[in-house]
């Protein structure tokens, strides 16, 4: 069954590299319950567009946090490749969110973003609510980047509409709406 907005988000598990702490950890969707999750698939480490997108996401990290949202980026690279990439390139060194390894391509397949011809993930963004329900998704061509501003805007609207009480700073919503 294809992933759909309004349905429970597919579970996932894997090893993530946390560049800001220079450590690995096991991560599951269940570990992130109780908060919004921005699951951000990207094609691969060591590419041209991916570090720019992740750097833009890192710049907006505090705005996501203010909305009660955890960011988790994911590609089909290994956790060791994630570390090597972060160690080597300034744009991704010290990222404030985890890079999940989907080396077995299970999450990419479950979320419908696995590009069979290349074995890499499309640029997919999924906003999952604190109860684990998929509330918004966007899947883009690997050649095009995404707008963090658009993702934040959608998250702000969803957080406001949900009334789930997970927004840590309600004034962050009105401040964000002014920016968008």
Topology:
Elements: E1 13-18, E2 23-28, E3 36-41, H1 49-59, H2 61-66, E4 69-75, H3 79-88, E5 98-101, H4 106-110, E6 114-115, E7 120-121, E8 123-128, E9 134-140, H5 148-162, H6 170-179
Parallel strand pairs: 3-4, 4-5
Antiparallel strand pairs: 1-2, 1-5, 3-8, 6-7, 8-9
Short description:
The chain has 180 residues and is an alpha+beta fold. The protein is built from six helices and nine strands.
Search tags:
180 residues, alpha+beta, Glutaredoxin, seven-stranded mixed β-sheet
Give a verbal description of the structure.
The mean pLDDT is 89. A seven-stranded mixed β-sheet has the order 2-1-5-4-3-8-9. The protein has a two-stranded antiparallel ribbon with strand order 6-7. The chain has helices at 49-59, 61-66, 79-88, 106-110, 148-162, 170-179; strands spanning 13-18, 23-28, 36-41, 69-75, 98-101, 114-115, 120-121, 123-128, 134-140. It is 32% helix and 26% strand. A hairpin with a 5-residue loop joins strand 8 (123-128) and strand 9 (134-140). With 180 residues, it is α+β, with helices and mostly antiparallel strands. It has one domain (13-179): 3-Layer(aba) Sandwich (Glutaredoxin).
Shape: globular
- Domain count: the total is 1
As for the CATH topology, it is Glutaredoxin
| Cα gyration radius (Å) | 15 Å
Q: Mean pLDDT, rounded to whole units? A: 89
Q: In percent terms, what proportion of residues is strand?
A: 25-35%
- In CATH terms, the superfamily is Glutaredoxin
Low-confidence stretches: none
Q: Please tell me the CATH architecture by its name.
A: 3-Layer(aba) Sandwich
Please outline the major beta sheet: 7 strands, mixed
Indicate the CATH class. Answer: Alpha Beta
Strand elements, count: 9
Pattern of helices and strands: EEEHHEHEHEEEEHH
| Share of helical residues | 25-40%
């Amino acid at each position: 069954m294809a992933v759909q907005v309004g349905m429970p988000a597919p579970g996932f598990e894997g090893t993530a590299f946390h560049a800001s702490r220079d450590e690995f950890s096991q991560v599951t969707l269940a570990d992130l319950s109780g908060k919004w999750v921005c699951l951000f698939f990207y094609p691969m480490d060591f590419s041209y567009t991916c570090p720019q997108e992740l750097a833009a996401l890192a710049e907006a990290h505090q705005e996501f946090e203010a909305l009660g949202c955890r960011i988790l980026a994911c590609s089909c690279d290994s956790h060791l490749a994630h570390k090597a990439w972060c160690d080597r390139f300034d744009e991704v060194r010290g990222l404030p969110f985890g890079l999940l390894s989907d080396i077995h391509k299970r999450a990419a397949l479950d979320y419908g973003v696995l590009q069979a011809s290349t074995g890499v993930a499309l640029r997919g963004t999924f906003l999952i609510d604190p109860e684990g329900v998929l509330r918004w998704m966007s899947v883009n061509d690997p050649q095009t980047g995404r707008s963090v501003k658009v993702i934040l805007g959608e998250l702000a609207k969803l957080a406001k509409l949900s009334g789930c009480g997970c927004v840590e700073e309600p004034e962050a919503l009105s401040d964000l709406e002014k920016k968008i």
